């Protein structure tokens, strides 16, 4: 229409960090400008907000009204219910005023402690993040399900196992389908069936009850102490023993078996040494491995193989080109007897190369146990 100033593009207004005009319209700063405007005749702030909402809905915009406090959601709804129509000139004036106000915003913030924590996720220390999340939950203003839905399945599984069937049904109903299916598959068959049936009974649960359940679960999850280490004790002990001398490794494992046979078995499975190569490395990856190891070091490792290590050396030689294997065997024969110390150092270098390749995604260790 003539003289009408259109709203900025709904897909991405300037100054909103890519969140889009529709996502910024009802942030606190932008909404405050709309409510406080006074240049469109005798309209009140809430009436102007109602006009903007009505116009955006008519254009098919996705409005994040749910992000507003309940009182503002209710206020807009009540204002829309009371209004009937506005003339074209009034519409143009309200839109122009609101668009000018929004264009003045240089940067928008998420609003609320929960939004700030989501923005800073990964940048705060675990202890600080946990404390602030407990504060956000205690305030009662944040949505606990947003936090719960963002947690990994491994973190949620213990809660699902310990809670009642009814709570478990609500929890699964609030998660993404893929995550809910993953968790359901990890439960014992009987409990999985009971929770699945309980989901069918959640249709009449009121929102306040769901919110209270979410607050309780969030508090329970946040009460778990922050971990001081990124990996578990099995992985840490296994990594240490990987680089320990064979005599030290065997002595420690023997002592662990006497103290805690179950833990010792888990550590054995986490350890990867030269003797594990035949059961943990795909034969097709051997050529890649030997390309990442200096030939002199490889010859020392192969020539110094003793006991169980001989099987690993033969596995390596068998899974390379026969011409190269013959050349390495000649070098091994010319090298003569290798000191145990030198052989162990060479084998450790081979293992280190394999670990580095695994970390880089160049190969994958096969799941298996040392015989």
From TrEMBL:
Keywords: Bacterial flagellum, Cell membrane, Cell projection, Chemotaxis, Cilium, Flagellar rotation, Flagellum, Membrane. It is a peripheral membrane protein. GO terms for molecular function: cytoskeletal motor activity. Residues 154-226 form the Flagellar motor switch protein FliG middle domain. It is found in: Bacterial flagellum basal body; Cell membrane. PANTHER family: FLAGELLAR MOTOR SWITCH PROTEIN FLIG (PTHR30534). Belongs to the FliG family. Residues 255-364 form the Flagellar motor switch protein FliG C-terminal domain. This is Flagellar motor switch protein FliG. FliG is one of three proteins (FliG, FliN, FliM) that forms the rotor-mounted switch complex (C ring), located at the base of the basal body. This complex interacts with the CheY and CheZ chemotaxis proteins, in addition to contacting components of the motor that determine the direction of flagellar rotation. Its main location: other. One of its GO terms (biological process) is bacterial-type flagellum-dependent cell motility. The keyword Cell membrane applies. The lineage of its organism: Bacteria, Pseudomonadati, Pseudomonadota, Alphaproteobacteria, Rhodobacterales. GO terms for cellular component: bacterial-type flagellum basal body; plasma membrane. It comes from the Bacteria. Residues 42-145 form the Flagellar motor switch protein FliG N-terminal domain. It comes from Frigidibacter albus.
């Amino acid at each position: 229409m003539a003289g009408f100033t259109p709203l900025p593009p709904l897909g991405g207004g300037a100054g909103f960090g890519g969140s889009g005009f529709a996502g910024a319209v009802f942030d606190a700063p932008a909404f405050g400008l709309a409510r406080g405007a006074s240049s469109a005749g005798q309209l009140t702030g809430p009436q102007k907000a109602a006009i903007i909402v009505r116009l955006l809905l008519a254009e098919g915009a996705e409005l994040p009204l749910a992000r507003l406090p309940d009182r503002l959601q209710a206020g807009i709804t009540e204002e829309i219910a009371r209004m009937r129509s506005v003339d074209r000139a009034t519409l143009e004036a309200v839109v122009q005023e609101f668009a000018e106000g929004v264009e003045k915003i240089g940067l928008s913030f998420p609003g609320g402690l929960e939004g700030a924590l989501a923005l800073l996720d990964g940048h705060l220390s675990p202890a600080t993040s946990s404390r602030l999340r407990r504060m956000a939950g205690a305030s009662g203003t944040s949505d606990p399900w947003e936090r719960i839905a963002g947690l990994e399945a491994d973190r949620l599984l213990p809660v699902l196992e310990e809670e009642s069937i009814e709570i478990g049904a609500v929890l699964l109903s609030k998660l993404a389908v893929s995550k809910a299916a993953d968790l359901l598959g990890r439960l014992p068959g009987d409990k999985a069936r009971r929770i699945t049936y309980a989901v069918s009974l959640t249709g009449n649960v009121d929102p306040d009850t769901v919110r209270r359940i979410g607050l309780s679960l969030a508090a329970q999850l946040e009460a778990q102490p922050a971990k001081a280490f990124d990996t578990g004790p099995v992985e840490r002990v296994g990594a240490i023993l990987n680089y320990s001398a064979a005599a030290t490794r065997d002595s420690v494992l023997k002592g662990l078996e006497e103290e805690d046979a179950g833990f010792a078995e888990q550590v054995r499975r986490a350890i990867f040494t030269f003797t594990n190569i035949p059961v943990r490395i795909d034969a097709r990856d051997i050529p890649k491995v030997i390309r990442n190891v200096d030939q002199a070091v490889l010859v020392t490792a192969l020539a110094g193989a003793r006991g169980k290590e001989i099987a690993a050396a033969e596995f390596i030689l068998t899974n390379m080109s026969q011409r190269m294997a013959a050349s390495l065997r000649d070098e091994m024969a010319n090298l003569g007897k290798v000191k145990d110390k030198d052989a162990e150092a060479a084998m450790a270098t081979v293992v280190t190369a394999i670990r580095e390749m695994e970390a880089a995604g160049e190969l994958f260790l096969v799941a298996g146990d040392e015989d």
